[in-house]
Queue: 2 jobs
Job 1
Amino acid sequence: DTAVSQTPKYLVTQMGNDKSIKCEQNLGHDTMYWYKQDSKKFLKIMFSYNNKELIINETVPNRFSPKSPDKAHLNLHINSLELGDSAVYFCASSQGPGSQPQHFGDGTRLSIL
Amino acid sequence: DQQVKQNSPSLSVQEGRISILNCDYTNSMFDYFLWYKKYPAEGPTFLISISSIKDKNEDGRFTVFLNKSAKHLSLHIVPSQPGDSAVYFCAASILGSSGGKSTFGDGTTLTVKP
């Protein structure tokens, strides 16, 4: 039973399109995260939500909008996709804000044509 | 501003030998450090951690050492096994800080040869 699950695993789309990535965790955690892993392999935090409230919002273009309908779900919507958005996006969760470790999903590989 | 660095992109060792992976950080506010292991097409999984009040933490074949004055940590794997072949990420955080943000290094690919 997967603890943190992301869908889809792969996403190939055209520049300018809008797409969403979904994430769900069944660990009962309060805090969820979105990370971006670019071609240089760095995992960079984008957003963090605690119990549906946004608590971290790094310097991310406004085209990226996270949505947390409940504490078990954190979705990522991306408008007007650009070539530079091509990356692997990882969702993660932890027991609470400031707690470690984080539990990661298997990632969504986004490719922009 | 890369606050966590893993200067060796790759490391190759023979099965049964010791693997030593290194990590340096610049932010003296970091007080909690973690190592994650990542297989291809999977997410990182937590391996071992250490608080800044300690200088060593051991879990089976894995030991993490922290040298605060040098802002350096290392992961020792003894003995190394082929199944240890993966990418290893070092991460640093300020425990209890708002958001629980972790800053990751860019990973070291470990290959353990049979």
Job 2
Amino acid sequence: QVQLVQSGAEVKKPGASVKVSCKASGYTFSNYDINWVRQATGQGLEYVGWLSPNDGNTGYTQKFQGRVTMTRDTSIATAYMELSSLTSEDTAVYYCVRVTSGSLNFDYWGQGTLVTVSS
Amino acid sequence: QPGLTQPPSVSKDLRQTATLTCTGNSNNVGNQGAVWLQQHQGHPPKLLSYRNNNRPSGISERFSTSRSGNTASLTITGLQPEDEADYYCTAWDNSLSTLLFGGGTKLTVL
């Protein structure tokens, strides 16, 4: 069955960076985009961007451009999202999501990774 | 502030029908439609509909979606206690070249 398994919770200090991983299984990794969505506690969903595992192409929401980097390692079917210059505003659960390229079919979600930014 | 507009909360009685709305503009909902997600407390969201208004496998027939102009709607019939959740719409915005989410609607089943 399709699964996206994310890395564990992180606690970071302001100004630091965090790298969250998302390991895919149960399907051909390169055939679907990986999108990243975050959710602050008690708040709504916020789109971060997307990665095409097939060719490594990425697209980032303007708000995060310059601070986010999405990469992948196809040999281990794993996608990564790195966010730098963290502030308390970045405290949230970060989800990776499998999406058919060109569609909005957010059909499989990772379990989420809580990133806490605190001094 | 660009985005999709959803009512913050809707309350309906058990076994009644709820219709949730999501209003955007001609660059997003009106252009490419929207999809709907359901999120129970403490869990990741779950896809309820495709952009063509079809349902993914395993989603109850009680959930249906439609679109009229720049507004997308999610209708849930025969409300059950397990339908109590947050519901989000999402759509791609051609002008902003980004994905937008609605603020979410908290559905309470009385």
